[in-house]
Amino acid sequence: MGLGRCRFLRVTKLTRVPKTRPANAGLSASQEADVKKVLGLILIASGVFGLAWGGFTYTTREKVIDIGPIHATRDETHNVLLPPIAGAAALICGILLLVTGGKE
Question: How far apart are alpha carbons 101 and 38 in whole angstroms?
Answer without folding.
Answer: 9
